[in-house]
Description:
With 311 residues, the protein is α+β, with helices and mostly antiparallel strands. The protein has seven helices and twelve strands. The chain folds into two domains: 2-161, Aldehyde Oxidoreductase, domain 4 (2-Layer Sandwich), CATH 3.30.365; 167-310, Aldehyde oxidase/xanthine dehydrogenase, molybdopterin binding domain (Aldehyde Oxidoreductase, domain 4, 2-Layer Sandwich), CATH 3.30.365.
Amino acid sequence: MIRVLADGRVEVVSGSIDMGQGTYTILAQTAAEAMGVSVDQVVVRLGDSRLPGSSIAGGSMLAGSITGAVHKAALAARDELVGLALNAPNSPFAGSGANTLSVSDGEISTGSGDGPKVTIAEIMKAIGREHLEIRRNTLSDDAQEAAEQRRAWTTMSKVTGPTMGDYSMHSWCAHFAEVRVDEEFGTVRVSRMVSAFDCGRLYNPKLVESQWRGGIIMGIGQALLEEGIVDPRNGRTMNNNVGDYLVPTNADIPDLTVISVGVPDLNASALGGKGVGEVGIVGVAPAIANAVYHATGKRVRDLPITLEKLI
């Protein structure tokens, strides 16, 4: 749901969540671009089940599904605002003869530029509206019945897989690892990682690159450090604390180079993006294991790769 408020701000309202992956940021950017306002004018409200429904934040699917809905709703809200500005009796554009208006930087003006230039807040005051409220979803126009909407949300919540018809909507990656193995002690250090990703359109490249790097760091931990040790006598986890369960620290992580090689994929989502959340970790451990094999000639087939398995 998009709400245009009397003070000119735009609200994005959804029952989805942001657990640190940047949903607030990309929804604000999407609404701002479609509405013709600055990001500073957009307020995002999330995380309440009473708000309009959303797909889950899992399976690397939230961004691709919700950005399309926000974009669609924001365009509809802009069109309604323009229609009111053209037709409301008290509007500065009433009787101007304009048949269309543009919205840019939070201001409404005629396409020719020779008419008035009015802020959204001034238009809302002129037409006497406290707010405009528009709801949209990413379903096609012929699938708007309640049953179709329920079926769509149920399918998304079950995360049946990123395929539809003849198209695959998976993201892809290739990891290249360089390792250094101590010949005497068998210790392994990752000295360099280069990774290329195809995730379609990147809604916010800085957030995406951080997500990719985070996944690679988790993959290094999976390959070399992380192991749950269970006592076979009673099934208890012996290293169930952050002192004994090893995770990567800054000293364990080399230079990481991430490269986007994707292009917008409109078969995957309304705006061309594909999943980013989990793709970074996939393939890291196998790349490191292959590099260890190249360096030592020893194939390790269970993780983590420890010095006991190499000596």
